[in-house]
Specification:
Elements: E1 2-5, E2 8-13, H1 19-31, E3 39-43, H2 67-76, H3 84-96, H4 109-131, E4 135-139, E5 142-148, H5 156-166, E6 172-175, E7 179-183, E8 188-192, H6 205-216, H7 224-230, H8 233-236, H9 245-250, H10 252-261, H11 289-297, E9 323-327, H12 332-337, H13 344-356, E10 363-367, E11 374-377, E12 380-383, H14 388-405, E13 409-413, H15 415-422, H16 428-431, E14 436-438, E15 441-446, H17 449-454, H18 458-477
Parallel strand pairs: 2-3, 5-6, 9-10, 9-13, 13-15
Antiparallel strand pairs: 1-2, 4-5, 6-7, 7-8, 11-12, 14-15
Bound molecules: uracil (URA).
């Protein structure tokens, strides 16, 4: 889907490895002479187990760029980095603009970067093929083979055909944090991922499998007919998860209400003692206090937002940064990537920082709330504004980030960030741009980049963008 946005074109891809979508958009952008710096790429990931369709291996096809570049893009699209779409488009743009042999220029920084990414996907693919281990899960007279794997990249879709060829006659499931693949001997079904923190080691896998099946079952989208046709009743008894199905249907309404309410105002609980970092097993080494804090936050259950989010999205940037940017909460893409401001709002923020002459890598970027709060709507996860209690509960982490980083200037992007740091409701239009003393530091309130993305017309977008750049420049000058 292509949406025009003042100087920008926003491309929303269907899922994290939507190669066909990316390729069609890249072609259309190049033909429209839209340079890479005027594009914003994002993913609208479906989280519906039963509606999600199987993706066949992407088709090769004619595109007016060298075949090698298309092949490379097919690999690099699997990289777990939201920038991949834009980087690949930058390559396409140059090839289309006459640099047909761009890939031969091995000294070119863009080529080097994309090649490194491709290499990283190949290494990950090799690891998955070589080290994935299935464990047998038995119920009644049927056997399912279940494997847990934590890839560095989005490689399940591209590798599923390999496992189908190798284990064609087995019934198997591969679970990863972002995606699961289920093969029944005839059909491949792709579904949302499993929670790394909950996957047990060998023994309890069967019990986990049942719980996993319940967790990916989204009650808000319960379609009993679809479910039965996906998994005919006569086969239920053969599946380890079958015993969960009647209960799931019975409690669907109740669970939907809980999800939609998602005000998540449960009392403050101490964090779980076990520290888990997404994408890892067990307790990671923490070299610095900030890393230790991030590791502890990864296990946060202080409010209920953790229940539906993929992972904690902690702040990132130098521990010695003099400038801190505080946003509201991770969005859909940040939730999947585990990093703040990498989706459309992040790309808008990056643009504003560049325009203001601020290097993002020198800034500590974080959020008032560390888990993605959303409401399911159809296949989409719609942003839901955190309430004041959630902001207050999550301040536990933000305060410690501020204590450790000790920024001289804190820029508060929008009302939620302002509430978290200033402890009161703020009207952005009234208070923006001025210095608010905070002990040894100064804070400044400005608009949130998502606000710019929502403005309906180009002239107000341009005006607000310029105002935001002005604020960033002013705050930077205070350093
Ligand atoms: N919006 C935010 O406030 N923070 C993010 O990290 C992304 C979008």
């Amino acid at each position: 889907m292509l949406v025009s946005l003042f100087l920008l074109r926003s491309v929303v891809l269907k899922h994290v490895v939507d190669f066909e979508g990316w390729r069609a958009a890249a072609r259309s952008l190049a033909l429209d002479h839209i340079p890479p710096e005027q594009t914003i790429w994002s993913v609208e990931e479906a989280s519906d187990l039963f509606a999600e369709t199987v993706t066949a291996a992407p088709q090769a096809g004619a595109f007016s760029v060298p075949r090698g570049l298309v092949d490379l893009a097919e690999t690099v699209i699997q990289v777990k980095d939201p920038e991949r779409f834009a980087l690949l488009y930058a390559l396409i743009w140059r090839a289309h603009g006459g640099e047909k042999h761009i890939l031969d220029d091995v000294a070119d920084p863009l080529v080097q970067r994309v090649m490194r990414l491709a290499q990283s996907v190949r290494r990950d693919t090799h690891k998955m093929r070589a080290f994935l281990r299935f464990r047998e899960v038995t119920e009644l007279d049927a056997t399912r083979y279940v494997a847990w794997f934590e890839p560095d990249h989005y490689i399940v879709e591209a590798n599923a055909p390999f496992f189908i060829r190798r284990f064609a006659t087995m019934t198997w499931s591969i679970l990863t944090p972002y995606r699961s693949a289920h093969w029944d001997g005839e059909t491949l079904r792709l579904a949302p991922g499993a929670r790394a923190a909950e996957v047990p080691d060998d023994d309890a896998l069967e019990a986990y499998w049942r719980a996993y099946f319940s967790s990916i079952f989204n009650p808000a989208r319960l379609k009993i007919a679809a479910m039965v046709s996906e998994m005919p009743k006569k086969y239920w008894r053969n599946l380890p998860e079958a015993s969960a199905i009647p209960d799931l249907i019975r409690h669907a309404r109740e669970r939907t209400e809980t999800m939609v309410e998602a005000a998540c105002l449960s009392p403050v609980r101490p964090p779980r003692p076990r520290v888990h970092v997404p994408g890892t097993r067990g307790t990671p080494p923490a070299d610095t206090p900030l890393q230790a804090l991030a590791a502890a936050a990864a296990a946060c259950q202080r409010c209920d937002l953790f229940r539906h989010a993929t992972q904690t999205v902690f702040g990132e940037g130098p521990a010695t940064a003099r400038l801190m940017l505080v946003g509201e909460q991770p969005g859909d893409q940040e939730d999947l990537a585990g990093r703040p401001f990498v989706g459309p709002a992040g790309q808008m923020l990056n643009r504003a920082l560049i325009e203001a002459g601020v290097a993002r890598e020198t800034v500590y970027v974080t959020n008032a709330v560390k888990h993605f709060k959303f409401e399911p709507r159809g296949k989409r996860r719609m942003h839901a504004t955190p309430n004041s209690t959630e902001i207050e509960i999550c301040r536990f982490w933000l305060d410690q980030e501020r204590d450790l980083v000790k920024p001289a200037v804190i820029i508060l992007l929008g009302a939620s960030a302002a509430r978290a740091v200033l402890g009161r409701a703020v009207t952005i239009a009234r208070e923006r741009g001025r210095a608010i003393p905070m002990g040894d530091a100064k804070a400044m309130v400005t608009t949130h980049p998502s606000y710019l993305l929502r403005l309906p017309d180009e002239s107000s977008q341009q005006r607000e963008f310029a105002a935001m750049v002005d604020d960033l420049r002013t705050a930077h000058a205070w350093l």
